[in-house]
Amino acid sequence: MTDTTIQPAGTSELPATRKPTKIVQRRWGLLLVVTAAPHSNDVITSAMRLAQAVLDEGKTVRMWACGYANMLTQKAHGDTKLINTRDPEGFYPSSAHIVREMLAANPGKFAWIACTACSAERGATDHIAEVRFRSPLRFVSTIEAADQTVFIGGA
Amino acid sequence: MADYRVLGIIDRGYRGAVEVQFFDALYGILDFRQQLSGVALALRGAAVTVAIDEGDYKPVVEFGPIRIDTLPDYRGSVRQLIAEGVPVMVDEPDLRALGFTAADLIEGVQCLDTNELATRWDEYDGVWFV
Fold it and tell me: Would the CB atoms of B64 and A52 count as touching at under 8 Å?
């Protein structure tokens, strides 16, 4: 354990060479905000295809899941969907599994954000570990950290 | 099996792909068959397109190295319903509005006028807007 001395504000004596650290927010190429619900239309698939197309161009992508889009990454899904009674031996990956695979395939280039408020409102707060929670209070700063933002509605 | 006959009506065509896979509206019709003494399907609105006969679509999407080849195959499901003896009907004006005719439909699909479709409702114990 290291001893730490806490000094009153304004009395710290930093070495002359040490300057206060400026926090620089990382920039992203594209922010995709998706508020549409899964199982409602093809928006989720389109958003994921758009994300992949931008990744294929060598750019970075951040997905911000709003509303029921937060259901996609719930741990409760496991790795596979429920059993297909008409094809019990078939392998059908869950949405959580697909998102996890996409994140693993694009380390540092693709990120998935779960809106804390939307998740809590829907009782859907148990996301897979790869997903990052972010408060809607940081929504605009997240937009500002991206070169482009595409807001896909439909909640 | 219950002595209960159902007409399933589907108006809205596409309800997801990556997250849905086999679990689409037509799977519901196929899967409920065991519990019912009779089931039929009526397609209206944009949903009429699921009964269009074409073979170009492949239920596959790729996200980089991740290949998912289990996307919904609506036309395959319609073919399956026909093969299993389930009546599949399409609203003719809605089909025409989208630029198709009865000749574009999967073999076995019936093309009926809106009013004629509505008169069939009485033949069923339940009409479900799926």
Answer: yes
Distance CA(B127)–CA(A71), nearest Å, equals 30
Q: Is residue A74 part of a domain?
A: yes
Give the model's pLDDT for residue A14. Answer: 58
Q: Which two tokens stand for residue A18?
A: 């040490």
Count the domains in chain A: 1
Whether A97 contacts A80, CB under 8 Å: yes
Is A91 part of a structural domain of the chain? Answer: yes
Q: What domains appear along chain B, each with residue ranges and CATH number?
A: 2-129 (3.40.1260.10)
Task: Check residues B28 and A70 and name the one with the higher pLDDT.
Answer: A70
| pLDDT value at B129 more than 90 | yes
Dihedrals φ, ψ of B121, to 5°? -55, -40
Q: How many CB pairs under 8 A join A and B?
A: 73
Does the structure show a pLDDT above 90 at B34?
A: no
Computed over every residue of chain B, the mean pLDDT equals 95
CA distance A143 to chain B (A): 24
